[in-house]
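Morning, I've got a small favour to ask if you have a moment. I owe you a coffee for this, so here goes:

…
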Amino acid sequence: MNKTRMSRVGEEIKKELSILFQRGLKDPRIGFVTVTGVEVTSDLQLAKVYISIFGGEEERKATLEGLQKAKGYLRTEIGKRVKLRHVPDFVFKLDESIDYGSRIESILREISPTKGNNTDDQS
């Protein structure tokens, strides 16, 4: 399968999973989840679903457990919505890039001098 088809399938799965997460799954463990990306293998057997979960470590852990339990339901729903012969198995991966970016931003804010407090500029 060519790369453009794989990325198209990945984008379609990402869109449909986002809709399913917005409508809310019935599992109370699943919190606020954002799908940040989907990588599909060339044989369509596996889809790595990168997600960002709002909340602390406990919420993330509970949400990942809930998503593991909901995997069968999610595959069934994706099968109904996306025209594929075989719906790939989902592997949920935590996307740390948003946390990483905000951590860098806060560090930069701490080390950069605030405007108006520049003591070198005495004219």
Summary: The mean pLDDT is 84. The chain is about 50% helix and 20% strand.
